[in-house]
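Saturday, quiet lab. Running sequence design on the structure tokens for the scaffold JK sent over.
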């Protein structure tokens, strides 16, 4: 029987609760679809940092490279200064495991939960391919004269030919495999960021020549935000840089019903990929059994798909869709009509 090694990182806040539900669904999927997992838990996060000062030890990073996939809950603890855990754990994992794609589907399962007037399930169904290892996230730059009125803070966007090309290429391949509208939109800011997006644009149209059956399209990031609200049905696959991808996928999450349902995959096509709900640690809901676990369960579906268990992935997604449509009163924490664990049980029952 096929066996996959999975590293489980529950993390902070509501992370452990949603990861628990994901693991429940994984166990059910294993017996139904005939595969196995060996799971190892890692206690990375705010609690460990506050107790021991450790963020992401080198030895753990090395161990993680030996897994088939990483399943992550959430990183971020209000007791720790912003940036320490996010950069030290989440971003470090993305960078060091070279997970250069952040794949974020924007899909509406039930139009009752869409905040857009007159839009339904057919209209909100696209995927954002976010570059995940470069751009403004690199941490290049610095301060001078910090703490004085002459202070200067510079933060630079790093865009390499290699980094842009592999991301753009992944997006074209993805649009081809997805086979929906066969359209790829480059989201940038060529009218202002005339270095970074000049490179992106040149690479985009160069790679496009290898994909004559994929329609190409360009939109500035500000206009992309506007179209995502006004005409989300115009999008099929969007490719963009790290920062813009971060921003537009929060907007994407809300048009698909909220953070409770939005999932993402940090992908290294030749290495260890990491799967996570994109909503964060939601500290105020911690331990209350009210957080929506469906984003984490959707991330599980993406993990199964990436591992090659496509049937199980599809079944999990279908079960989520059914629970959303037939059971839930809302996708928001505390308003679902069910507790966190009950929603997990409903997904298992529908699998
Ligand atoms: C995300 C998050 C992270 C990001 C934060 C927590 C560092 O917002 O996954 O979108 O900015 O990438
Ligand atoms: Mn984000």
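Result came back. Writing it out in full:
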């Amino acid at each position: 029987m096929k066996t996959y090694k999975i590293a489980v990182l529950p993390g902070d806040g509501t992370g452990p609760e949603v990861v628990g539900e994901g693991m429940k669904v994984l166990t059910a999927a294993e017996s139904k679809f005939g595969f196995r997992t060996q799971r190892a838990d890692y206690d990375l996060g705010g609690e460990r940092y506050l107790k021991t000062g450790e963020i992401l030890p080198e030895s753990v990073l090395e161990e993680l490279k030996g897994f088939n996939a990483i399943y992550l809950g959430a990183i971020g603890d209000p007791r720790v200064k912003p940036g320490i855990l996010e950069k030290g754990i989440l971003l470090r994992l993305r960078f060091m495991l070279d997970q250069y794609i952040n794949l974020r589907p924007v899909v509406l399962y039930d139009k009752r939960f869409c905040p857009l007037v007159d839009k339904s399930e057919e209209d909100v169904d696209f995927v954002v391919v976010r570059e995940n290892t470069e751009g403004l996230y690199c941490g290049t730059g610095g301060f001078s004269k910090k703490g004085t009125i002459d202070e200067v803070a510079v933060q630079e966007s790093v865009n390499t030919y290699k980094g842009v090309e592999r991301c753009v290429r992944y997006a074209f391949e993805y649009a081809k495999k997805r086979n929906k509208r066969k359209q790829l939109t480059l989201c940038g800011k060529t009218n202002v960021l005339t270095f970074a997006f000049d490179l992106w644009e040149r690479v985009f149209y160069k790679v496009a020549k290898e994909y004559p059956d994929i329609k190409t399209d360009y939109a500035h990031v500000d206009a992309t935000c506007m179209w995502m609200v006004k005409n989300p049905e115009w999008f099929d696959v969007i490719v963009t840089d790290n920062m813009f991808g971060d921003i537009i996928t929060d907007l994407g999450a809300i048009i698909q019903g909220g953070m409770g349902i939005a999932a993402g995959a940090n992908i290294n096509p030749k290495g260890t990929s990491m799967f996570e709900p994109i909503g964060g640690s939601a500290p105020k809901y911690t331990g209350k059994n009210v957080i929506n676990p469906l984003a984490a369960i959707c991330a599980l579906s993406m993990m199964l798909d990436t591992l090659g268990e496509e049937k199980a992935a599809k079944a999990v997604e279908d079960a989520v869709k059914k629970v959303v449509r037939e059971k839930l009163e809302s996708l928001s924490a505390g308003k679902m009509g069910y507790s966190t664990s009950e929603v997990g049980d409903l997904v298992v029952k529908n699998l």
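Notes for JK: The pocket of 3-isopropylmalic acid (ligand 1) is lined by residues 76, 86, 90-91, 246, 278 (CB under 6 Å). DSSP finds eleven helices and twelve strands in the chain. Ask whether to fix the surface positions before the next round.
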